[in-house]
Amino acid sequence: MSSQSPSAGALPAVSPARVLAGLCLLVPIVVVLWVPSYAKAEPSLGGMPFFYWYQLMWVPVSAVFTTSAYLLLRRDEAARRAASAGSAPVPAQPDGGEQS
């Protein structure tokens, strides 16, 4: 039997950034699916029952969590590419062009 071990310079498949990104995606799903936590009419906000405004509040909050997960994964992928290339990540030019 041969055991497969990652090479010395390889990054682990599960990094803290990936775990945090997963949690960022999981939080809005769990909160919105946990209906007993918001199945009530009070407190109302501008005449709108709690049940409705709580769900509507989670639309932009979910977008923030999703954006955070995307940015975490993008940063993690850049670190992985840099580690596999054996060099530090090259920052992008403000005009979008490549460095020479």
Note down, in words, how this protein is organized.
With 100 residues, this protein is mainly α. The chain has a domain at 21-83. It has helices at 16-33, 50-85. The longest helix has 36 residues, at 50-85. It is elongated and about 60 Å long. It starts with 15 loop residues before the first helix and ends in a 15-residue tail after the last helix. The model has no long low-confidence stretch (mean pLDDT 82).
User: How are helices and strands ordered from N to C?
Assistant: HH
How would you sum up the major sheet? none
The average pLDDT is 82
Structural class: mainly alpha
Distance between the amino and carboxyl termini:
48 Å
Strand content: under 5%
Q: Which residues form runs of ≥5 with pLDDT under 50?
A: none
Helices, by number, come to 2
Report Rg. 21 Å
**Would you report the number of β strands?**
0
Helix content: 40-55%
Shape: elongated
In short:
The chain has 2 helices and no strands.
What does the secondary structure layout of this molecule look like, with pairings?
Elements: H1 16-33, H2 50-85
Helix pairs in contact: 1-2
Task: Give descriptors for this structure.
mainly alpha; 100 residues
